[in-house]
Amino acid sequence: MADELTRLKDYPFSINDVEIPFPKSFSDNRGVIENVNQSETGKDIVQLRRVGKREFTYTYRLLSDWIPMFDAWADSETELTVKFYDHGTGEYEEKSMRMRNYSRNLVQHSEDLYGIMGIWDFTFTLIEF
User: Which pTM value belongs to this model?
Assistant: First the structure.
């Protein structure tokens, strides 16, 4: 995992042309969309619809300045344009995604820091359309 984060730091990603800082943690999953039915003989019949559907989960620790932007993206049902570096192909890719499983939590005692509205932990998942 540490290797993945080191490489990720060298290749920032963006949402709707806004470059996002380096995450506290990151995971990249590739899903499969399939239908599984059973034949009359009891055999499973699998129909693959799509393989390689991207899903990214990020965790950040950022200042409160990011709250309005992340909240708007999380509340939006419109697609987000996400640009990221794919280590498998060695190139940047651009995908249409939506934000899900969004949460933000105030870091304890950060509200006491002068001049800011606290430090926050943001977690969200980006799922490809």
Answer: 0.74
Q: Residues 126, 98: contact at Cβ < 8 Å?
A: yes
pLDDT digits (tens, 9 = 90+) for 47-64: 666 667 888 999 999 998
Q: Is the dihedral of CA 54, 91, 80, 119 positive or negative?
A: positive
**CA distance linking residue 29 with residue 56, whole number of Å:** 6
Rounded to a whole number of angstroms, the CA Rg of the chain reads 18
Residue 3 CB partners (closer than 8 Å, separation 6+): none
**CA atoms of 1 and 44, how far apart (whole Å):** 36
Distance CA 86, CA 64 (A): 29
DSSP string of the chain, one letter each residue: -HHHHHHHHHS--EETTEEPPPPSEEEEEEEEEEEEEE-TTS-EEEEEEEEEEEEEEEEEEEEGGGHHHHHHHHH--S-EEEEEEETTTTEEEEEEEEEEEEEEEEPTTGGGSTTSS-EEEEEEEEEE-
